[in-house]
Amino acid sequence: xxxxxxxxxGKLGGRIAENMLKRVxxxxxxxxxxxxxxxxxQKINEWTAAGVEIREANYDNPEQCLKAFSxxxxxxxxxxxxxxxxxxxxxxxxxxxxxxxxxxxxxxCSFIGASDPRYQHVYVTPDHTATExxxxxxxxxxxxxxxxxxxNLYLENYxxxxxxLALMSENKWVTTAGEGKATFVAKDDCAEAATELLLGxxxxxxxxxxxxxxxxxxxxxxxxxxxxSGIELEYCPVxxxxxxxxxxxxxxxxxxxxxxxxxxxxxxxxxxxTNEASIAEGLMDVISNDFYNLTLHQPKTASEIIGNxxxxxxxxxxxxxxxx
Length: 324
Description:
- There is one protein chain.
- By secondary structure, this protein is an alpha/beta fold.
- The chain has 14 helices and eleven strands.
- The protein has helices at 11-23, 41-50, 62-69, 85-101, 125-142, 155-159, 161-167, 187-198, 218-229, 240-249, 269-280, 290-295, 302-305, 311-314; strands at 3-5, 29-33, 53-56, 74-77, 105-111, 145-151, 172-175, 181-182, 206-210, 216-217, 234-237.
- Strand 5 (105-111), helix 5 and strand 6 form a beta-alpha-beta unit.
- Helix 10 (240-249) runs antiparallel to helix 11.
- The radius of gyration is 19 Å and the shape is globular.
């Protein structure tokens, strides 16, 4: 059995890759990313010395993907970084390339609410909805098996970049989340669930909602960080227009087609505004036992992992590239 993970240069894909190395022989593992040369040299040496195959697979190059996916039986597909029609086209091409390469099972990394019309106004959701539809249609046409992993908002983002932005803004934590709550989920937990699905723990052609076990507000998270850091952060709920203005001043582009050279975070304003507004709307307060059913233990909470991110305020981190 050959297992393939795309996006191994990213925060989630890299975690899945490391998990898989603990579960299967290195010779059973294929890791891909758009530009392997951007991987740390130490990581390349470790993986290749163990027997892992590292291949280049740019989602904009279907022929390259076809070649990179060759020989894989089961694949975990990380979603692309663009948002909009370009990403949907990329995803469809990647799925088609996987089928042509003989991949028999795909687990796709989606987002909470992708199958629910109530979430369609959230900026990133339509891309996942379209991708899931293409994956299901392809399954029917080619007898492809699949799982869909719908992650909730990543807990780490609110313990790193939200804190970083607050420290850059006179200790003001600005958001459209209001007093809404969400079952934020740790990226380590998402990677663990992904690993189980890639290894076959899920039921074929089934979607799983990967969420945290606690419903917490951003005000709660702000308080947790303030207590841990000793820095009094002020929670500042605002409306969408005010949040857009704030993000504009922080040099955060409105969409993914813009220049991110001066942005302190890797995602766009439309994404941040609508994701956080959806918390205020109650859309991210999703209760699910899927993580436990896949892993047989409970997901982590903010209080349990906050210590991992003390370097954000200790070192005064100001850019996402410096976040571990």
